[in-house]
Amino acid sequence: MNSYPINLNLSGKSVLIVGGGKVAYRKVKRLLDAKAKITLVSLTVIDKLKQLLLDNNIKYYQREFKEGDLLDIFLAFALTDNRRINSLIASLAKKNNILVNVADSLEESTFTLPSLIEQGDLLLTVATGGNLPALSKRIREELENSFGEEYKQFLELMKILRPLIIGNVDDKKQRRRIFRDLADLELIGLLAEDKNQFLEELSDRLPDKIKDICDLDYIIKW
C-alpha cells in the first residue's frame, strides 16, 4: 500500500464506526481522545463498548448499516465480521470521497492505523504496511520501554520554555543552538533518574536571560 503518513485533527469531525466488537471498542476510545463526533452502527455491541457509548453519550444505532449512514461523514471504519458489508461500506465511502478503514481488507482501505506510543505530546508511530501487524506491536513494546514518563514531563516543560526562548533570544543561530542542546536524550533521561542533576544540566544550557525570567526549580516541581 502506497501511503503518506499524516496526523489528522479530528476534533469535531464526524466519524462513522460500523461494528460492535473489540476492534470497534478500541477505535471508539482513541476517537474520544481525539474529540471526534462519533456515530456507531451495529446490531450488537460487546458490554464494555455499550458502557463506553452510554458514558460518553455517543450516537448509537442498533441496526444494520444503511447507505445514508455515510451522509456528512469525514472518516469511516468498516469493522464488522461480514465481508460483504465491509466491502459495501468501502465502496460507498470511496464513491463519496470519505476516508475509510476496512478491518479485513488492506486493499479496500484508503488509510491504515499504525501502532502508537504516546507520552503526553510525544507521539511515536510504527507501521509495517499491513504486512505484519504483530511486528508493529513488538516494536511498539520495545519503544515503550525506551520512552517513558520523563518525555511527557520534558515536553510539558518545553511548552513553557520554548516561547520564552523565542521571545527573548533574538539571534536565530543562538536559538537553534539552544534548542539543539535541549534535544538531548541523555538530558531527558536525567529527569527520570535525578531531578536535581537534571536542573543543573538544564540550567547550564539556558542563557541567563531565560533563567532570570523563570524559576526552573519551581517549574520542574509540577
From TrEMBL:
Pathway: Porphyrin-containing compound metabolism; siroheme biosynthesis; sirohydrochlorin from precorrin-2: step 1/1. It is an enzyme of class 1 (oxidoreductase). GO terms for biological process: siroheme biosynthetic process. Its EC number is 1.3.1.76. This is precorrin-2 dehydrogenase. The keyword NAD applies. One of its GO terms (molecular function) is ferrochelatase activity. PANTHER family: SIROHEME BIOSYNTHESIS PROTEIN MET8. Gene3D superfamilies: NAD(P)-binding Rossmann-like Domain, SirC, precorrin-2 dehydrogenase, C-terminal helical domain-like. SUPFAM superfamilies: NAD(P)-binding Rossmann-fold domains (SSF51735), Siroheme synthase middle domains-like (SSF75615). Keywords: NAD, Oxidoreductase, Porphyrin biosynthesis. It catalyses: precorrin-2 + NAD(+) = sirohydrochlorin + NADH + 2 H(+). It holds the Pfam family NAD_binding_7.
